[in-house]
Specification:
Length: 482
């Protein structure tokens, strides 16, 4: 007689591990990377970069591209060596094993999402006023719209958003169309004999600053436009043959966006003077108006708003989910892990991140928010560049991409340089970043003290062998789309 299913002599079959479905091929991955990089940075901060360096506004974007490419090689080695979702926090934890450092990396990524979303809300407000032909010179009008926009984003976040690769393709097409319009307007101006392309080689620095110092300061800000490529490593488990696919596709995606940014910068400064570009928060609208007066400018304004709205939503989703994950890992206070009963969305984390975004919108201007995003991620990228060298002491059996040793070394040095005052970075960036990280460390300390008082019965940040967070501080650190 065959044994029954309940016979204890028959051991249960081991459960097969559940893995994410591998649905992304090279094409979809390329669109994901391009769409993740495109966003608020180039739409809103081209004018601010021009104000720093003058007509050679394309040079800081080119320098930012080089630094991003160097760091991308480190990410490529790590994602092909460890083809799992996780990102910078997972790599730093694997390399250094310091739980508190892992927490800092994770919270820095979360904070960069807040500053990126806040900058997007300000850009949205400026473009909406332009589309409606309303005078936005009064700061209260722009502030009210930016705050209302963030409320709308939080409501969508609370309801729950089902992001998909197909949706990302559509969003990428809209974001890309706006930048191609700017490039097309530049080409049209050349054909019509318009524009002053001699400006692209001019440096306009103020206060006795050298050209090198001006480019360094502008690059520290322009780097905001290049971030986003690192998000793709979190798609490793959903990519077909990631070890072979990632190196080629990530490098192509970065190159495409770098070329687009340089062309947009050249077209912008050829049609509008750097001084005019630096005024206001809608520089690319001015470029389209100058090069193609007959173009429906309201349409371009709405394209810009759509692009920055996508950036804001993605970053606020990431920030709230990251806080939720850290709470579930007991690295942050437990209430941040509470969910809405029906929607199953982390409502406390959403409310908390929205309130922080309110403070950022009211406290910092667009340049400071973009600069803070750049600063936080440059610090994270410096750690990743060092981590890839440390992890070479732990070889794996399968073949993987290996970056030439010089590249992560140079990448780390450049990231550290651009993150320090030596680059000419504005002091407001450090102030905003410092307050955000202080809030994070304060929350972590509350959990640490609470668990000490409870005698470690709940586990938490004080229970690790080195005083760090319990277990692996959550690592799904998706970086913001700028």
């Amino acid at each position: 007689m065959p044994e029954t299913m309940g016979n204890p002599a028959t051991p249960p079959a081991p459960a097969e591990p559940i893995e994410l479905k591998r649905v992304m091929g090279p094409g979809l991955l390329l669109l994901f990377i391009i769409g993740d990089i495109l966003g608020t940075g180039v739409y809103a901060l081209t004018g601010t970069v021009a104000a720093e360096v003058g007509g050679a506004v394309w040079l800081p974007f080119l320098c930012a591209f080089v630094v991003a490419m160097l760091t991308a090689t480190s990410y490529l080695e790590l994602v092909t060596k460890y083809p799992r979702a996780g990102g910078a926090a997972a790599y730093s934890h694997r390399a250094f094993g310091i739980h508190f450092l892992t927490f800092l990396v994770t919270f820095a990524v979360m904070a960069s999402g807040l500053t990126s979303a806040s900058s997007a809300s300000k850009a949205f407000a400026a473009n909406l006023l332009s589309a409606l032909d309303v005078d936005g010179s009064h700061g209260r009008v722009t502030l009210t719209i930016a705050l209302a926009f963030m409320v709308l984003i939080s409501l969508v976040n609370l309801r729950g958003v089902g992001e998909s690769v197909k949706a990302n393709v559509a969003l990428t097409a809209v974001e890309l169309s706006g930048l191609l319009i700017v490039i097309g307007v530049g080409v049209w101006a050349v054909v019509q004999g318009q524009g002053e392309f001699g400006r692209v080689t001019e440096f306009e620095t103020g206060g006795g600053e050298t050209a090198f110092g001006a480019v360094s300061a502008a690059t520290a800000l322009a780097f905001f436009a290049m971030v986003g490529f690192e998000d793709s490593v979190n798609m490793a488990e959903e990519t077909k043959d990631p070890v072979r696919t990632f190196p080629r596709i990530m490098l192509i995606g970065l190159t495409v966006t770098g070329v687009i940014y340089v062309l947009v910068a050249i077209a912008s400064v050829a049609l509008v003077t750097p001084a005019d570009l630096g005024e206001g928060d809608t520089p690319l609208l001015k470029v389209v108006q100058a090069g193609a007066p007959g173009f429906p400018i309201d349409l371009f304004a709405w394209i810009t708003m759509f692009a920055v709205s996508n950036s804001a939503l993605i970053n606020m989703l990431m920030a709230s989910r990251l806080l939720y994950g850290m709470s579930r890992e007991r690295a942050l206070p437990a209430p941040l892990g509470r969910l809405l009963p029906r929607r199953r969305t982390p409502w406390v984390a959403i409310v908390f991140t929205t309130l922080l975004a309110f403070l950022l919108i009211g406290y910092a201007d667009l340049a400071a928010l973009g600069g803070t995003t750049s600063l936080l991620l440059l610090c994270v990228f410096a750690i990743v560049n060092v981590a890839v060298l440390v992890l070479r002491r732990s070889p794996v059996e399968h073949k993987h991409f290996r970056a030439p040793t010089a590249l992560p070394v140079i990448g780390a040095v450049l990231c550290v340089y651009l993150a320090t005052p030596l680059s000419g970075r504005a002091g407001d960036d450090y102030e905003v970043a410092g307050w955000l990280m202080l809030i994070g460390v304060g929350l972590w300390a509350c959990v640490w003290v609470g668990n000490r008082l409870l005698g470690g019965r709940r586990g938490g940040p004080g229970d690790g062998p080195d005083g760090g967070a319990t277990g692996e501080t959550p690592a799904p650190a998706a970086t913001p789309t700028p």
